[in-house]
Amino acid sequence: MVGNKIGNTEVTPQGIWPIVKSLLKRDGPRAPTVVHGASGLKFHPFEKANEIADCLEIQFTPHVLCDKNHEWQVEARVQALLETIDDNPPQRIRPCDIQKLINSLKLQKACGIDGIPNECLRHLARRPFVHLTQLFNHCLRLSHFPNTWKEAKVITLPKPSKDRKFLQNLRTISLLSTTGKLFKKVILKLLQKHIDERDLLSASWFEFHACRSMTLQCVRLADHVTLNFNNKMSTSTVFLDIEKAFDTTWHSGLLYKSSKLQFLNSLTKLIGSFLSQRKFRVSVEGEMSTPREMQSGVPQGLVLSHTLFSLYINDAPQTHGVHLAPFADDTCPYTTDGKEGFIVRKLQRGLSSMETWFERWNIKINEDKTWGLFLL
């Protein structure tokens, strides 16, 4: 039976994966039957949803590591920027551009809190399609991201082989508004154009350069190690893990850096509107928690969010003789020398510089998941 299914299936990841998934499917509920939170055990779906929401609300809070003077300067500049009257809105989006973005939406994705599936946009008639384009252009002109598109529906999936009643063993997935996701693609297109025209991202950022990937970043590091090993040189590296990187990104810090990168004021305001007043509700067995606000962070799972986070840490300091191999929220400084003592001193100097920079921008390193490697 399985052989017949495979024989009649198109040889693509989309065709084969459902069959593999059915073969590997394990029995048991997807949602935890009981949740152990800060206030004890919860059994009712509504109570479980709110217990998970309480935990996530704390998670979406920025770290406070920088000094107050720096924080005040950043907040004051951002506030002044948001209050300016801008006469140079971003370029208008055309219906043909919207159509291309709609065609790029994946039909298999679950719908958000609005209940509109991606496939619905594929079948829009001409009149509502024109109205949607006009709506997007009005949002661009006003530098406004509607609040109804910001509310996320959060579902949970248990991590494999973990006790699912503990919150740390649950993986959260945010389901976003379909229309909002489409407008985010519009913002990403404008943002990417600005980045490409001014070559803003460091060359070491492989994630957002064409024809580069995480694999190529690993190959680059391995090639560096091998080449210097053949020349009787040793390499040392530290793999830094940023704690809750996407959940704790400082909004004002990101907008401050956007203005420093000479973004159009209207685009910076639009990014600010996209990030501000974001809310989420946790869904458990059909029951929804009360709405909670996200005080920090960028929504996970979006290319736009990855791009914004990359811009946020793009100006990480590089000291002489220390290279960086970043990808997404992982950063790997490394250095090479013929003497172990020189390697340690160079790497320590680079890490000290980065530590000061991390604190300045409210970025916290997870020491438990950070480790070093010395290749003799």
From TrEMBL:
InterPro entries: RdDP_mobile_element, RT_dom. Residues 138-376 form the Reverse transcriptase domain. It comes from the Eukaryota. PANTHER family: ENDO/EXONUCLEASE/PHOSPHATASE DOMAIN-CONTAINING PROTEIN, ENDONUCLEASE_EXONUCLEASE_PHOSPHATASE DOMAIN-CONTAINING PROTEIN. This is Reverse transcriptase domain-containing protein. It comes from Cryptotermes secundus.
